[in-house]
């Protein structure tokens, strides 16, 4: 399945279960206008529909990337602020939609990842970057700040000093420094980037999908609640996983010394 929306391209690989959403406004460095925000959500919904005809879980992981040579996403479209300010609609924002999407979403960052582009990457489950990439929050130069939680996310990942440094200076930092600070998961040499991301994503897509989804839910709970409540929540998720066919398959495969085949059931 390949489908194009106005500002995103969507692909699904039914061998691996990996979906790809490509932000496709390369002439504007994939800056987020209202259409692109809507199309990211529409693209993810389109991928999720792959599960409807499947037995178990067809969609195992999603890669979010930017078209063109220069950017993942250069942030909010500077031309369109007043017309599509955050929170104007009752629909979930694309940030919320990614955060709550049941399947892991991997931000594949090759180039500039700035402002709302960095917040989009932070809403994803993983950030993988090429070594030439740069991240930052330039909003302060426009008299505003990252309005979709950028300071909150970076504070949780890297601490308040790094969050304030990024948001108050507006400076770009290298992917390597961002990885040292815990903002990016992995940085790869430019010539290894494509293969390394493919390998990471394909491995992730081969894991038991219901366990992966439970881990995403557990991690989301961990940042919102106290330890006792979080551990109790994990207990429920764990009890549910124990009942799944995939758990039986994983245990059988281990006993028979073969690779498991998980279906998401
Ligand atoms: N919104 C709208 N258009 C943008 C954009 C944005 N956030 N960022 C880049 N573009 C456009 C540029 O206007 C330019 O368009 P043009 O070719 O029609 O003139 C094109 O993308 C290429 O950008 P350019 O600035 O020429 O590339 P560069 O390599 O010199 O610089 C950046 C790249 C990312 C450093 C620079 O574009 C930049 O600082 N962008 C703004 C980032 C920002 O402030 N984002 C947060 C907004 S809250």
The DSSP helix count reads 10
- Major sheet: order of its strands? 1-2-3-4-6-8-11
Q: Architecture of the largest domain, according to CATH?
A: Alpha-Beta Complex
Q: Into how many domains do the coordinates divide?
A: 2
Q: According to CATH, what is the topology of the largest domain?
A: 2-enoyl-CoA Hydratase, Chain A, domain 1
Q: Poorly predicted ranges (pLDDT <50, ≥5 residues)?
A: none
As a whole number of angstroms, the C-alpha radius of gyration is 19 Å
* Overall geometric form: globular
SSE series:
EEEHEEHEEHEEHHEHEHHHH
Structural class: alpha/beta
Which range does the strand content fall in? 15-25%
Distance between the termini: 23 Å
What is the count of β-strands? 11
State the CATH superfamily name of the largest domain.
2-enoyl-CoA Hydratase, Chain A, domain 1
Query: Would you state the CATH class of the largest domain?
Result: Alpha Beta
Condensed summary:
The protein is of the alpha/beta class.
Task: Give a verbal description of the structure.
This protein has two domains: 204 residues, 2-enoyl-CoA Hydratase, Chain A, domain 1 (Alpha-Beta Complex), CATH 3.90.226; 47 residues, Orthogonal Bundle (Lyase 2-enoyl-coa Hydratase, Chain  A, domain 2), CATH 1.10.12. The protein is 42% helix and 17% strand. The chain has ten helices and eleven strands. A hairpin with a 3-residue loop joins strand 1 and strand 2. It is globular. The model has no long low-confidence stretch (mean pLDDT 95). Coenzyme A (COA) binds next to strand 7.
């Amino acid at each position: 399945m390949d489908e194009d929306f106005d500002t995103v391209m969507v692909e699904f690989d039914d061998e691996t279960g990996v979906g790809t959403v490509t932000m496709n406004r390369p002439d504007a460095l994939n800056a987020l206008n209202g259409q692109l925000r809507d199309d990211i959500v529409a693209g993810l919904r389109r991928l999720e529909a792959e599960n409807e005809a499947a037995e178990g879980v067809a969609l195992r992981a999603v890669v979010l990337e930017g078209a063109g040579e220069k950017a993942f996403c250069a942030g909010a479209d500077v031309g369109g602020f007043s017309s599509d300010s955050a929170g104007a609609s009752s629909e979930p924002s694309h940030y919320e939609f990614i955060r709550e999407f049941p399947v892991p979403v991997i931000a594949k960052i090759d180039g500039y990842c700035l402002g709302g582009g960095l917040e989009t990457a932070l809403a994803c489950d993983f950030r993988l970057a090429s070594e030439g990439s740069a991240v930052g929050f330039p909003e302060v130069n426009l008299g505003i700040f990252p309005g979709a939680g950028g300071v909150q996310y970076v504070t949780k990942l890297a601490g308040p000093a790094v969050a304030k440094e990024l948001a108050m200076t507006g400076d770009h930092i290298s992917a390597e420094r961002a990885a040292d600070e815990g903002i990016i998961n992995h940085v790869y040499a430019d010539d290894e980037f494509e293969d390394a991301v493919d390998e990471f994503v394909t491995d992730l897509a081969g894991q038991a999908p219901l366990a992966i989804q439970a881990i995403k839910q557990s991690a989301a709970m961990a940042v919102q609640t106290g330890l006792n409540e979080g551990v109790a929540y994990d207990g429920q998720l764990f009890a549910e996983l124990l009942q799944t066919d995939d758990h039986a398959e994983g245990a059988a495969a281990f006993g028979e010394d073969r690779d498991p085949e998980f279906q998401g059931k």
